[in-house]
């Protein structure tokens, strides 16, 4: 089929590359049918990412030219085979059976048993599809372990499911290659790169620091610039991570939709805020409990805003420190 007018595409999926040649007036449905032959992934389970675009299910009859595909373009495909989905369905059936048994036991026992809820097939798509440490850097096994911990983090999995985030590759940034950056999101989730290591390569940055950068970069799946929309969603993600962990700690294991209440920082932040408030207000004991709480939260949130501003300066996805997104 290759000719002077054909589109030669390279489609990457789970570490494999597939070369395809199609005509510009062929449809996305034709491309997806070819990909199904190569990967066994049905079209309705396929997600294509290229140059910041991701066609929707209703775009299948759009031509490749209309969809913005060009000769020589590289495409990242995310997706799950029918066999994998069937396997998850089997696991889900067993999970439901176990939960049913737990509910029956709970109805007869004096102690209430809480369930963590049920999964669904979307959990296979809304996740990090590949974890790739940099093999040329020291101790890549530890880097992979840190990436795996981020991928398995229940709070991160919670916000990815809730907001339907899908990331092709989660990998790392080498400090000597981009010393000014802590994170980079390539093509709205095709890749997310995080600074895992210290500048001197003598260890790794703290887990909570790296996870906070990850929340920042996940926000770039939706918003490219650090505008008010970005700040609102980024704050919400951090809030939902904290709420989820508080719920798990309290034993509820489930969260309702965010109700708009103010973000309550961790105990350490509250303690820090309390110290600032006590040092500046001699008559604090006369304030109400709610007044003291609001002052502590205001101080803690001011610190978080300052940290977020510093993080924006070290994010390569948008702003003055942007780097080549194709690297």
Structure characterization notes:
InterPro entries: Ubiquitin-like_dom, Ubiquitin-like_domsf, WLM_dom. Residues 119-305 form the WLM domain. Residues 7-78 form the Ubiquitin-like domain. This protein has 4 domains: 7-79, Ubiquitin-like (UB roll) (Roll); 80-124, no CATH class; 125-261; 264-315, no CATH class. It has 327 residues and is α/β, with parallel strands linked by helices. The protein is 42% helix and 13% strand. Strands 2-1-4-3 form a 4-stranded mixed sheet, with helices on one face. Helix 7 (267-280) packs across helix 8 (289-313).
Looking at this protein, list some descriptive labels:
327 residues, alpha/beta, Ubiquitin-like (UB roll), 4 domains, four-stranded mixed sheet
Number of strands: 8
Shape: globular
Helicity, as a percent range: 40-55%
Could you say how many structural domains there are in total?
4
Major beta sheet summary: 4 strands, mixed
Low-confidence stretches: 111-119, 254-286, 319-327
SSE string: EEHEEHEHHEEEHHHH
β-strand amount: 5-15%
Count of DSSP H/I helices: 8
The mean pLDDT is 78
**First-to-last CA distance:** 31 Å
Widest sheet, order of strands: 2-1-4-3
Structural class, please? alpha/beta
Q: What is the alpha-carbon Rg in Å?
A: 23 Å
């Amino acid at each position: 089929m290759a000719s002077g007018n054909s589109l030669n595409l390279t489609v990457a999926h789970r570490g494999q590359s597939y070369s395809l040649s199609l005509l510009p007036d062929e449809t996305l449905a034709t491309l997806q049918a070819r990909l199904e032959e190569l990967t066994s992934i049905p079209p309705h389970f396929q997600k294509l990412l290229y140059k910041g675009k991701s066609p929707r299910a209703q775009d299948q009859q759009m031509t490749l030219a209309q969809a913005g595909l060009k000769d020589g373009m590289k495409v990242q495909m995310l997706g799950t085979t029918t066999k994998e989905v069937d396997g998850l369905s089997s696991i889900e059936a067993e999970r439901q059976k176990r939960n049913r048994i737990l509910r029956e036991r709970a109805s007869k026992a004096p102690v209430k048993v809480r369930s963590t809820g049920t999964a669904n097939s979307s959990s296979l798509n809304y996740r990090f599809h590949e974890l790739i440490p940099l093999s040329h850097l020291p101790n890549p096994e530890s880097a992979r372990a840190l990436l795996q911990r981020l991928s398995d983090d229940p709070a991160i999995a919670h916000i990815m499911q809730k907001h339907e985030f899908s990331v092709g590759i989660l990998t790392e940034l080498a400090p000597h290659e981009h010393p000014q950056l802590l994170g980079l999101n390539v093509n709205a989730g095709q890749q997310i790169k995080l600074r895992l290591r210290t500048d001197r390569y003598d260890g790794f940055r703290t887990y909570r620091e790296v996870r906070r950068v990850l929340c920042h970069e996940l926000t770039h799946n939706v918003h490219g610039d650090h505008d008010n929309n970005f700040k609102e969603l980024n704050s919400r993600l951090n809030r939902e991570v904290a709420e989820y962990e508080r719920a798990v700690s309290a034993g509820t294991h489930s969260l309702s939709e965010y109700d708009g209440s103010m973000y309550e920082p961790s105990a350490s932040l509250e303690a820090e805020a309390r110290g600032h408030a006590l040092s500046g207000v001699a008559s604090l004991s006369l304030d109400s409990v709610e007044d003291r709480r609001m002052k502590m939260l205001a101080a803690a949130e001011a610190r978080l805003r300052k940290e977020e501003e510093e993080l924006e300066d070290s994010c390569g996805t948008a702003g003055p420190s942007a780097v080549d997104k194709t690297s």
